[in-house]
Fold these 2 entries.
Entry 1:
Amino acid sequence: MKLGKEEIKRIFLAGAFALAVVYAFFNGLLGPVLKSQAAMRKSIAELAPRIQEAKLVLAKAQESERAAQSAKDVLAQIAQMTPHGAPVAWFPPQVAAAFKTQGADKALTRLIGETPEKEIAGYDKVSWAVELPRVEFFSFGQALADFENSQPLLEIYSLSIEANREAAETQRVLMSAQHLIKK
Amino acid sequence: MPLRLNLYHEIERDKRAKSRDPLKLGILAVLCVAAGMVSYYFWQLGVLRGIEQSHRVTRAQFEDLVPKAEAAKKREQEFADVVKSKERLVERMEERFHWAPFLAQMGKVVEGDVQITKLSGELQVAKIRRCNLAVEGVAAGADPRKTAEHLRVAIRDELLTRFKVVNATFRTLEESPTPANIHGKPQGTALFLIQVQVATGEETPPKPPTRKKR
């Protein structure tokens, strides 16, 4: 079969047209779609780890919240151990009552100072000096044990027990203590 | 066998030639390819819609979670402070130094031939609580120095049952000219001052220095 000049020209034109259509299809139609798909896949891939991270932060925060709630309950229980009002109004009578049960008829309690506790938010360190002019060693020991057990926020920093000159069977006690008190 | 004459052979040849026309076949092939391309295009459009939907969901989830996570991060510090305060408070309550058992132990070791005239102690609060105690008194007996030494050892041994680290040393030990009357017999006396140091725990030894490689 022999092709004429006109036919060759038509075939050439048809081929060029087909190529143009294919080019237009890939560049104008399919290309943007594929490009858009790739961009969205990339965006999803970028968001996924950030979402995962946010979920982890939220889970951690929930755990912290549970721990904080339990800590708050403990703090509330501890705060209940402290009576309301100025410490100087209730602490000296507590000391006097605690040692009176074991025969110490007199207890002198002085407030030395009050500073905020830096490590424990909401608490003040209150320093006291306590003098018991006349005690008997063993009953004082018993009273001290009860007193230390009843005051978990109190710590005695110095203690001096000295024999009384006028009555050798009794002793004079000086103590300094620090008390943590809720503001 | 009858003779058959095909008078349409030219017409049929033309018909066959027409059905094998390359132009027609080419047009058919191009149409098939075009139909394939269009279907592929629509299929990809469908895929794109699916990805768009999933992107929208992911973006919405991200926009919902991120502000919540940022707020949670801020609150986490607040929670950590509460937990830290509670831990410090409980630790302080649990680790405080109790003087009453200490005095009970001291009372246990003092025999009838010893009189304690002064007992004073001071607490040093650091990582480990240390208590420095000064025990002043009079020891009596045929050998009052031996009585005082016996007391020092007894104090150390008794306190070692409760504390890991105990040091008990004499600061002073002097014989006194004043005799003491024990069970009706005059006995020699010695004045003593025993320094006692106890620690509620053991310090961790410092790490050995690392050798530099040559």
Entry 2:
Amino acid sequence: MDLQFQDFGDTRTQPAGAGGAMGGKHEQTILFSEFPDTAEDDQEHDKLMGEGEAKDPRSLKAGPSFWTFEFYQQFFDVESKQVGDRILWSMVPKPGVSYLQTYIRPNPDLYGPFWICLTLTFATGITGNLASYLAASTEETYVWRYEFRKVTLAASSIFAYAWLVPLAVWGVLALRGSRAKITLLELLSIYGYSLAIFVPVSVLWIVPQPWFKWCLAIVAPVLSGSVLVRTVWPSLSHDSKQVAIGIAVVILLLHATLALGFMLYFFSPPEAKSKNDILPVNPDTNKASTPSPNVPEAPPKAPEVEGDTEAKKKPQEAKGDPTAAALVNPGVKMVERESKEIKTSSSVKKALDVKSPVKVQEGVKTKTVPSKPPPPPPAPPAAPTAVTTVGKTEEMVKKSTS
Amino acid sequence: MADVESSKVEMPDFVDPGGYGEVSGQMAMPGAVGKTEAEEYNTLDEPVRETIMRDLRAVGTKFYHVLYPKEKKALLKEWDLWGPLILCTFIAMMVQGTQEVDKQDGGPEFAQVFVIVWLGAAVVTMNTKLLGGTISFFQSVCVLGYCLLPSCLSLILCRLILIAHQNRILFLLRFIVTCIGFAWATFAAMVFLGDSQPSSRKSLAVYPIFLFYFIISWLIISHSNV
């Protein structure tokens, strides 16, 4: 058998459409235009690149499904230190550093927002109760009435703020065609961490000084709100100045409204939720509970003592009235203030049950008796002494008014 | 072959190889089949008292391990939810607010306490698992429920203290008792659940447990009507 080489000639070597002007027959350039895929090439590629990388493109495309557990695990991919940093820097606006870029960007998480909201719910509920307890009573027999329903209300409002407002902001940014592309997850993270400042603030709100409370209510939302606005600002920068400022102001306002809402609802003085039914029973008997030494000096001393209890019990209520009335007729106004103070402590009612017979005698002189504000601490031990001093009080009253 | 066909071969009877007759009986095999059948037969047959005592003993053992948390496997190996149910029902009954209108006690309702305990345990467990913990759902709920025991004991003590006429010192005493219960419960839960997390996330997993027992302790200390 002979092997003969076939001469294919020039026709096979001319590339389609290309100006392959060749020279003579002996110059043949063969251009390959088709490269059939062979299975061996793929396997080699995989081995060269390593199995992990070959799998990665596939896994990135698919992603864990919404219905699997792993989908939610990706939102909790944080370390303790990261969470600590995020909380700290959400409270303190660090100049020159973008909170978003530095602390949130690589992996925004939902651990922080969820647990901060839950902590804040219970912190406001508990400290609100503590504040009302401390403000309303300093006597030993006070029964701590706490309101569990406030916790449920707190939960709804906090979770609504932390999860619906970012949704709204994201929607607004998307509508305005923002180019900075903050994702919804990042917004949720930022808003969640911005609530972190209210946890220590709610503990500080127990202090019953109103000016201190208002200071906190202004400083806290300003600090965390500024971090919020600085984070969102880059996505607004392409918009017109007015719209951008408008949105920033709305964000700040919502934040401040939340803070104010907390303060006024949970930490308002207890008289705001006084019980009216106690009033008709006690105003007369309560006067009797005041210790005797105050009786002769009732007019001059009463405003001071009242001012003291006022500061403790009703920091914000009717400051104008007492001072004016004290000059004119201490008796009338003091009665009203007293009655309000009485409402708060029902144990005073118990302590004063002893003095019910006295009530009848003093009933006539409700408006004109120069009364002393009831200092709650000595109420129970003062009970026996008060009964004896009531008689003296009455004599004094009769002398002064007649 | 002619010689094969002609001989009569006596084939032994395979059912009765040695000619011993019918042989039957039970063999104590290491395999599972024979044993579980025997056991099921026994547990169905045993008196109810024994069944209850066995469960009670399991619950009691777990209570003991919660009070002295040295060995970790006791609660995790065989979880059960009887103990948490008993403790939760007891706490909810004691802590609920009164129904009388004039007292106006602001305490939680029975159902609210139940929801807090069970939903709280579920949420804490979900958090542990989402952070990458290696513990199963019911094991974690079991541990969290059993670790309510110290809080329950502090509730009983507080209730006893409340019998006396209240003053500041007694309130302080109740506060201290509740704090001890809270710290003990958190510590016990940490001992059982602590190993399931990598160390960089341990405090992230411990904080929800802390919050859970803190809320229960707040419910206990706030309960002050007799």
